Write a sequence for this structure.
């Protein structure tokens, strides 16, 4: 296993499982953790899509396997954790990143769209974490990072998504309370506007040009630009390092300002 970043390199070669890592923020985190020296289980709905990320990591000299699994499905979650543990080793780092949006104003939102968002973000993080925590508590070392969002603070048209992302913050703080004594930390990263397929799909739904939308959004972001998946991966990398062992139960907004 190779590592290009000696400062962030794990002292022990840990095994990370990153959900929703076929693309976007999850793929950037998977690549970053691999460069930090971790073996990575790339988990996404479509195994072929997961394989693209895993193969790219292997080509860079890292270790990775690809798994197709729906994180909101209890059996899939257990299978994914078991497979990563069997092929790479005990899962001591879990990134709950898989996510979907089903935006609509409250009066038009269907129960199906409410349930879909709750199931992927909240049920998914719950069943994945419950499956992985056994490896972490046994190892007396673990790192859990949950992807929240600035939408947790409220966002028009996202009553389902904002509730799920706020829920993940409470979930994170409770994990920190329960698992701290086992050397396991849990933190949430709450991104603002990050350039991915998710934000591109939102632009399409709103009928606005994505590049124009980014320029307009940048005017309201204190650092004057939208974020990249690598901006989020850098924070996740720190939270998963040995150096972050005293950081737990926190929500870190990564939004180019206090909120955007
Ligand atoms: P993305 O580009 O849409 O990628 C999400 C990935 O998750 C996709 O590959 C998707 O697979 C996968 N996924 C969806 N449902 C899944 C399930 N049930 N099981 C396994 N994988 C599943 O999204 P992103 O922008 O990278 O966002 C990553 C995370 O950051 C999400 O939790 C999102 O809510 C959060 N976030 C994003 C932003 C932003 O501005 N982009 C801001 C704040 C928070 P399919 O393609 O097959 O659906």
């Amino acid at each position: 296993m190779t590592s290009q970043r000696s400062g962030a390199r794990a002292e022990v070669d840990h095994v990370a499982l990153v959900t929703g890592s076929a693309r976007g923020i999850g793929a950037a985190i998977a690549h970053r953790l691999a460069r930090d020296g971790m073996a990575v289980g790339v988990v996404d709905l479509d195994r072929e899509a997961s394989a693209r990320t895993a193969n790219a990591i292997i080509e860079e000299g890292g270790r990775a396997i690809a798994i197709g699994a729906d994180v909101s499905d209890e059996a899939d979650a257990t299978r994914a954790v078991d497979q990563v543990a069997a092929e790479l080793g005990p899962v001591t780092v879990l990134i709950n990143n898989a996510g979907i949006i089903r935006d609509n104003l409250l009066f038009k939102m269907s129960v199906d769209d409410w349930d879909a968002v709750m199931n992927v973000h909240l049920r998914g993080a719950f069943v994945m974490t419950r499956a992985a925590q056994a490896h972490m508590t046994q190892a007396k070392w673990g790192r859990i990072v949950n992807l929240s969002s600035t939408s947790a603070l409220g966002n028009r048209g996202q009553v389902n998504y904002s509730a799920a992302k706020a829920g993940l913050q409470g979930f994170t703080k409770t994990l920190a309370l329960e698992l701290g004594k086992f050397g396991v930390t849990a933190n949430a990263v709450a991104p603002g506007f990050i350039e991915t397929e998710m934000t591109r799909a939102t632009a399409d739904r709103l009928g606005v040009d994505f590049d124009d939308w980014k320029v307009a959004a940048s005017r309201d972001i204190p650092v004057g630009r939208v974020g990249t998946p690598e901006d989020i991966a850098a924070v996740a990398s720190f939270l998963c390092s040995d150096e972050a062992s005293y950081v737990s139960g926190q929500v870190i907004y990564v939004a180019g300002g206090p909120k955007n």
